[in-house]
Amino acid sequence: MFRAEDYVKVDSLSEAYELCQKRSSLVVGGMVWLKMTSVTKRTIVDLSGLGLDKIEETKEEFRIGAMCTLRQLETDQGLNQYFGGIFKECTRHIVGVQMRNLATVGGSIYSRFGFSDILTCLMALDTYVELYHGGMVPLEEFSKRPVRRDDRDILVRIIIKKDGRKAAYTTQRNSETDFPVIACCVSRWGNDWYVAVGARPGGGAGGAPGLATLAKMLNPKIKVIGVEPEGMTVWRSLPGRRLIPLPMAAIRGQADRTAASWLLCIQGALWRDLQEGA
C-alpha cells in the first residue's frame, strides 16, 4: 500500500520543482498504479492547481497539459479530427472509462513503458515533451532516457506539431482490456512513412529481438519502443541489442513467428488504410 506523510498542492511549477529536488518527494497524477505499490514518500506533490489539465490548439500545434486525463485525449474533437481518430483508438482499450478519467497523460509518458498505447501513438507523430528544467525535448529522445531516481525534472506538457501527417493505430491483445501484446502506429507525411512499434516485456510477445529486427528491416524509420527482454527495461536493452538476420528471426520459435506475423498484418493494414484515405 502506498503511503505518504505530507500532501502539498503547489501554487507554481517553481515550488513543485523545489520540492521535487528531495528524493523523499514525488509528483502524483491519477495515482492509478502508484496506489498499488508499497512505496513510502515523505511528500507528494499535486500539480492539479496549475492549469495543466487542458488541451490547447494553435495554428502550429496541440499543447496537452501533463494533468490531462486519458479520457480527455479520447474525447477531444480537435485532436481526433486532425489525426484521424487515433487518440480515441489508442485509449479505448485501456481498462475502462473510470480509469481513463484518472490516469494522466504526464504519468503515461514520464513512465516510458514500452507497452504504452499513448507513447506508441505519440512516437509516430512530431511530438515533444516540455520539461520545467530541461525545456523542449523530442519525444523520441526523451523515451530513450533511462528512468532514474535522481531525475527530478517535471514534465509540464506534451506538444504535437500540426504538420499535416495522416496516422492510424491498432493493437493485438489477448483480451479486450489487456495490455497490448503488440501496438503499432503508422503515420504518413508526404512520401515519408513513420512507424512506432510497442510491446509488452518478454513473455507476452515472445521473442522480442526477432520482432525488433523484422521491424527495422521493413523500414529503417521504424521506432521500436517496446519488446524488451524480460527483466530489463527497453532503455537498457535496445541500444546494445545485436540485430540478427531476417532468416534467423523467422526460425527462433513459435512466439517469434507469431509476433512477426502480427506485426506484418498490422502494419500492412495500417498502410493500406492511409493510402486509401490519402
Short description:
By secondary structure, the chain is an alpha/beta fold. The chain is 34% helix and 25% strand. It is built from twelve helices and twelve strands.
Description:
It is a single chain. With 278 residues, the chain is an alpha/beta fold. The chain folds into 3 domains: 3-46, no CATH class; 55-161, Uridine Diphospho-n-acetylenolpyruvylglucosamine Reductase, domain 3, CATH 3.30.465.10; 166-277, no CATH class. It is 34% helix and 25% strand. Strands 4-5-8-6-7 form a 5-stranded antiparallel sheet. It has a 4-stranded mixed sheet with strand order 9-10-11-12, sandwiched between helices. A 3-stranded parallel sheet has the order 1-3-2, covered by helices on one side. Helix 9 (208-218) links the parallel strand 11 (192-199) and strand 12. Helix 9 (208-218) packs parallel to helix 12. The longest helix has 24 residues, at 254-277. The chain is globular and about 55 Å long.
Rg over C-alpha atoms, rounded to the nearest angstrom:
19 Å
Note the overall shape.
Answer: globular
The overall strand count is: 12
Number of domains: 3
Major beta-sheet overview: 5 strands, antiparallel
Mean pLDDT: 75
Neighbour order of strands in the largest sheet: 4-5-8-6-7
Comma- or semicolon-separated keywords:
single chain; 278 residues; Uridine Diphospho-n-acetylenolpyruvylglucosamine Reductase, domain 3
Helix-strand layout with pairing:
Blueprint: E1 3-9, H1 13-20, E2 25-28, E3 40-46, E4 55-57, E5 61-65, H2 70-75, H3 77-82, H4 86-91, H5 97-100, H6 105-111, H7 117-123, E6 127-131, E7 135-138, H8 139-144, E8 155-161, E9 166-173, E10 180-189, E11 192-199, H9 208-218, E12 223-224, H10 234-237, H11 246-250, H12 254-277
